[in-house]
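Possible regression after last week's pipeline update?

I re-ran a chain I had predicted before the update to compare outputs. Posting the input and the new output here so someone can diff against the archived version. Not blocking, just want to make sure nothing changed silently.
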Amino acid sequence: MHVFFERQTKMKKFLPYMAIIGAMLIWSVSGIAIKMALVNFTSLTLLVMRFSLAILLLLIIGLVCQKNSLLGLQKVKWKDLHLFLLAGFFQPCLYYLLETYTYDALRSPTIAEALLSTSPVLSPLFAMALLKEKVTRNNVVGIIVSTIGMLMLVLVGSEEFSIGNKWGVLTAFLSVVTAILYSVVLKKIPAGYNSLTIVFYVQICALFLFYPLWIVREGIHTPFPTDINLWTDSLWRSLAGVGYLGACSTVVAFILFCYSVRQIGVTQANVFNNVRPIFTAVAMMLIYGEQLPFGKIVGVVLVIIGLFVCQKVSKNEKIAR
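New output (post-update):
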């Protein structure tokens, strides 16, 4: 009996790490799904469709599992509503607008993933500016190494990069900033709310922000041909991409990530962003047979090394305190 409970305890400690790896694996393929969806849908239409589907699925899960403390949908108190609005503004709203443009502008999802996974590197800078935390020498070394890696990703084979691609690098950086600010707000949401409730209301707030922008830019319209016979194979593939983004990337991955953050903390959870470029590169090779030039492979490796250097230092300092 003692051995049984000991195994249960070990499994319970291991679950958050399994959850965060699952979330990163799902998100690492998101770039491919976004590329598929953007063939037939504009960025704003994709976002509205994606989050509408996600909210519907979350609502169904929350109502069906109402009596479950982990998956049941809870009511939000008025005093906490501003935190959900602010979180929804930073991520998904700003983050996904910028992320979608990044994937649209950069030709390779692997490069986009590498740039979008640098939040652990930039976090110490924001901690120093906003929280007055000390940035160590090893933090600086990690930032320099990762910056060199990102420059290699951008400059190697630079003939592929047009002006639009260079703007994609900028929006990738801005995406990382909004993700960091989202984490700051997420930490302020009271612990009484479960992961599904947080994800559900944050995404509703984001959709309310997306929808007026979509109407102003594109007007209310259906993105689908009225005649089913006009639905091409390309359109079905785009719909498959939307389905993956709505169900997997926006529902499953967000719940897994939120659960992990609450169990192991924001800093430790963000470490796993380091593996996203690896997952993406493997997916691109398996699905599209994409071969990266050696210089870009070195760039990805340097980005990941820099991320681990920064996070290892952060974790050690946290333990020391």
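Follow-up from reviewer: compared with the archived run. The chain has one domain: 20-320. Marking as no regression found.
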